[in-house]
Amino acid sequence: MALHSTLSAVTERIVNRSRATRAAYLDRLRAAAHQGRVERSQLSCTNLAHAFAAMPDGIKIHLKEEHRPNLAIVSSYNDMLSAHQPLETYPAQLKEAALAAGATAQFAGGVPAMCDGVTQGQPGMELSLFSRDIIAMSTAVALSHQMFDAALYLGVCDKIVPGLLIGALSFGHLPAVFVPAGPMTTGIANDEKAKVRQLYAEGKVGRDALLESECQSYHGPGTCTFYGTANSNQMLMEIMGLHLPGAAFVNPGTPLREALTRAAAQQAARIAAQGKAFTPVGEMIDEKSIVNAIVGLLATGGSTNHTMHIVAIARAAGIAVNWDDFDELSAVVPLLVRAYPNGKADVNHFHAAGGMGFVIRELLSAGLLHEDVGTVVGRGLSRYAQEPWLDNGELKWRDAPTDSGDDSVLRTAADPFSADGGLKLLSGKLGRAVIKVSAVKPEHRVVEAPAVIFHDQNDMLAAFKRGELEKDFIAVIRFQGPRANGMPELHKLTPALSILQERGFKVALVTDGRMSGASGKVPAAIHVSPEALSGGPIGKVRDGDLIRLDANSGALTVLVDDAEWAAREQAQADLTHNDFGMGRDLFAVFRSVADHAEAGATSFRHPDFHPASWRK
């Protein structure tokens, strides 16, 4: 199948926009490479002795030989969070598998892993977004010892996988294989969970009923099963060729999961510089890989957080993408998956219906993915139109199903849930924003209503509880951007806004904050850029201003006379309460230098990028 013309045009534009920055990145990458020689050969004897002093004698012998590849294990393991708890046993499995493949492996370092599900609506959420940058830096620290010839990255959730990949790309001369843990098994239905949350918000059930419902949903090891940022991460690693094919959604604690984990180490050894299939991750992840990532996000209805994370990942590889690219691709990429919050199913249902192998084959067949890309198992994405299985204990791959196991969850490109990807760019008098409409009913996609201004999500919830929001309105929640308070998710507002919408009111949200991968049926213009603290026009809105959010036409505007609008001063807010408590004082440096959301909301300063290049 020939490539879709829009896919080709967007890719070509990204290549042209990134020509200078990508070339500079590759020059640095190639200068760092020592192809055919192990990294540790650059170390002095004193350096090297320090690096393997604690290793068993048998491993020391191999490390002294200076010809076998040595693999880094970088892990986000902790046993508080369900998604990362399974990673406890992985290092031992990876070390055994590496040794059997003629390599060695060392645990190079751990990275922090916080959970937005735990910190949602709490002060700790203000550390969340910039934890991604700390994870990237922690990855760099782990790899800084020049002991490693390839790396295995163990991570799952929200900021962890983007942070690991940004860190990996800063060591782009090393091959990288990502090793997932998989989702927990299915608990209660997502609709049932959401209903109890709404009843609690209305005061109709108590905390005991709410806690019991949540415990039945989040009940064991593995990733949360709804299709939020964590599972969108796993989809991205699959469609970018950084996992072994079909590895994303295999449950933890199963024989197949262990077989895939061990095989990841063996493959990392094969693609190290000492092998015949040397695959440095910085060369492998190119403009086509990034476009494939965007397409995968759109086709599966993935997390809006990736409108920032993909930009930041691309930037780490010298590639410049912006929201125009997302918007143009969204217009032609069909929605093939209905998983909560865009449907009733969870990721286990999606995986059972055909999963990523089915999606990749359908998109390739429709000319909506680049097949000619690098992956950790070789050239060509067609290999990922397969699924793993065990044949008498031996790991093998077979073609993904040709028919969906459940067309209420997974459909073909010829018969999609919708003809577009459901992610749109909004622009106008209030700046630029993104909106996810795949779960928003058509009758709710255009809202014109007076603004009600809040500078704190808790103030809006208090107004809701007082009964002050029983009307048509658009909640403008500002001073929630990266520089103001670290851009927390505002998912805590979803039950209240959903209740008001169900009562027949026209409601929407406009914010320079985030709404997370769990954003759902209420229209939400999020990531508004520039943010209020940086002088963005969202700071000029006043209570009662008529705002028009039109997800069909892509307009986000305020119906105020141009002369009056130009004369208005920016609103001010006292943000001192964001500066301390729960570690927020330690993150002040990140807030002070953060880029705007469309540039990835990172604190990093890549020397080759200039602000004017982003919209070309």
TrEMBL record:
InterPro entries (alphabetical): 6-phosphgluc_deHydtase, Dihydro-acid_dehy_C, DiOHA_6PGluconate_deHydtase_CS, ILV_EDD_C, ILV_EDD_N, IlvD/EDD_N
Cofactor needs: [4Fe-4S] cluster
Alphabetically ordered keywords of this record: 4Fe-4S, Carbohydrate metabolism, Gluconate utilization, Iron, Iron-sulfur, Lyase, Metal-binding
Record's keyword annotation contains Iron-sulfur: yes
GO molecular function: 4 iron, 4 sulfur cluster binding; metal ion binding; phosphogluconate dehydratase activity
Listed GO biological process terms: D-gluconate metabolic process; Entner-Doudoroff pathway through 6-phosphogluconate
Catalysed reactions, semicolon-separated: 6-phospho-D-gluconate = 2-dehydro-3-deoxy-6-phospho-D-gluconate + H2O
Pfam families: ILV_EDD_C, ILVD_EDD_N
Binding site for [4Fe-4S] cluster: C157, C224
Pathway where this protein functions: Carbohydrate metabolism; Entner-Doudoroff pathway
Chain ranges of the Dihydroxy-acid/6-phosphogluconate dehydratase C-terminal domain: 409-601
E.C. no: 4.2.1.12
A GO term from the CC aspect: cytosol
Gene3D superfamilies noted in UniProt: IlvD/EDD C-terminal domain-like
Domain Dihydroxy-acid/6-phosphogluconate dehydratase N-terminal: 68-382
Binding note for cofactor: Binds 1 [4Fe-4S] cluster.
Alphabetized NCBIfam families for the sequence: edd
HAMAP family: Edd
Biological role stated in the UniProt entry: Catalyzes the dehydration of 6-phospho-D-gluconate to 2-dehydro-3-deoxy-6-phospho-D-gluconate.
Protein family (similarity comment): Belongs to the IlvD/Edd family.
Protein name: Phosphogluconate dehydratase
